[in-house]
Design a protein that fits this description.
The complex is a heterodimer of chains A (202) and B (191).
Chain A (H helix, E strand, L loop, with lengths): L9 E6 L8 H10 L12 E7 L14 E2 L2 E10 L4 H19 L5 H18 L3 E10 L4 E5 L3 H15 L3 E3 L2 H8 L2 H9 L9
Antiparallel strand pairs in A: 1-6, 1-7, 2-4, 3-4, 4-5, 5-6
Chain B lengths: L10 H7 L2 H16 L2 E3 L5 E14 L6 E7 L5 H7 L4 E10 L4 E7 L6 E6 L13 H30 L3 H14 L4 H5 L1
Antiparallel strand pairs in B: 1-2, 2-3, 2-4, 4-5, 5-6
Classes of the chains: A alpha+beta (202), B alpha+beta (191).
Chain lengths: 202, 191
């Protein structure tokens, strides 16, 4: 679940570099440039882009829609539709039967490919879209980002879109990276040398 | 912030190599909370930590991986204590954290230590009049509580690291945990 409703799950990231210029215009321009494009009436299979945090249909990104005091908030929206091969093949067999009835022969490989592609586009338009929202909070002072969600696939989608949008390297916060941030230089050397120990060995 | 990160080391390699840190932390936090559920928190506050309902313990990697899932609404962890005897460590836990400001239940995985499925509950210090009404107010309140939770989890992890990297780990902490586990690990001591 995300950050706005229900029981939140988060993944934490640390920005490795601070942006040179974090003005409203900078953020707005980046978000707009990589804003979500609606594919409701097209045959596109997926669309990924930013939407406003409180309104997943809006892509204006006026600062009041993403600036919330000490942090910024926006959402990655992924719309996707899937056409199962089983369905495509079912409709292809109907078209193939028509072709055989008209010509008295089976379609060759080239014709088969053309018919299948044409059918795929036609059927994709009729598939309902599934929408997934990945909420993002950017704590600018702490250079920390929260992604509303966990799992490798969600993280990868977010990391790719983030990198493409802002060009800022963000690293997942894991126990070792958190630990290295918390300890002194001497302790960090010790931490990097530490190996897994048993409860039963000194 | 990451000045201690080693040069020319790939994050994924380091993450995998040091995956045990999160497991050792959760194992330590669980056992320490069974001995005394009150931990010093940020400032002068106390933090109450209780492991509840579900613990997943694991040992080995790949084909040699062996896992045990303990689901106990009554917090009878006998099976989990015994699993420690064969060097399993906690990889996921459901815990309850209570502070002056809030009480919350959450899942905590050892690989990231990032809170999952967090359920915030009102505490005595948080009355009905304080309940935010609008969507934005609810959201800001949620973020504020989640930020407090982050601070507490970071504080607990830092407390663990300070002990883990000190001589006290072998000299005091491990003997303390072993003493607590004695009743459950008799077979190991006899072997």
């Amino acid at each position: 679940m995300g950050l706005l409703k229900g029981t939140p799950t988060i993944s934490r990231y640390r920005l490795l570099d601070a942006p040179l210029e974090l003005t409203d215009a900078f953020v707005q321009e980046k978000l707009q440039r990589h804003g979500f494009v609606d594919i409701e009436t097209t045959a596109e299979e997926t669309s990924l882009g930013w939407v406003e945090f409180l309104d997943p249909r809006a892509t204006n990104f006026d600062p009041h829609a993403w600036r919330f005091g000490g942090f910024l908030a926006f959402t990655a929206r992924i719309d996707s539709r899937r056409l199962p091969n089983k369905i495509l093949n079912r409709y292809y067999l109907i078209e193939e039967a028509k072709f055989v009835a008209e010509t008295g022969r089976k379609p060759n490989a080239q014709k088969k490919k053309e018919v299948k592609e044409s059918l795929r586009l036609e059927l994709l338009r009729r598939c309902l879209l599934d929408t997934d929202l990945l909420e993002v909070l950017w704590f600018t002072k702490e250079r920390e980002i929260w992604l509303g969600g966990a799992g490798e696939k969600k993280r990868q989608v977010f990391e790719d879109l983030w990198e493409k949008t802002f060009g800022l390297a963000a690293r997942l916060l894991a126990p070792i990276t958190m630990g290295l941030e918390m300890v002194t230089k001497e302790q960090a050397t010790e931490l990097l040398k530490t190996i897994s120990t048993s409860l039963w060995e000194d | 912030m990451s000045q201690n990160y080693p040069e020319n080391v790939d994050f994924l390699d380091l993450w995998l190599e040091k995956m045990f840190l999160g497991q050792e932390f959760l194992t330590w936090l669980w056992l320490a909370s069974e001995i005394d559920c009150l931990f010093p928190g940020p400032g002068d506050s106390d933090v109450e930590v209780r492991f509840e309902k579900r613990l997943v313990l694991e040992t080995g990697q790949g084909q040699n991986r062996s896992q045990v899932v303990c689901q106990n609404p009554d917090r009878d962890w006998t099976e989990a204590f015994v699993a420690l005897g064969v060097d399993k460590k906690v990889v996921q836990a459901h815990l309850n954290i209570r502070t002056e400001l809030f009480e919350c239940a959450l899942n905590l995985p050892a690989d990231t230590l990032a809170p999952q499925s967090v359920k915030m509950k009102a505490t005595a210090a948080f009355t009905e009049d304080d309940e935010p009404k609008s969507q934005i107010a609810k959201f800001l309140s949620q973020v504020s509580l989640m930020s407090s939770l982050r601070t507490i989890l970071d504080f607990l992890f830092h407390s663990f690291l300070k002990i883990r990297l000190s001589n006290d780990w072998s000299a005091k902490e491990l003997p303390r945990l072993r003493e607590f586990l004695k009743p459950w690990i008799i077979s190991r001591e006899n072997s």
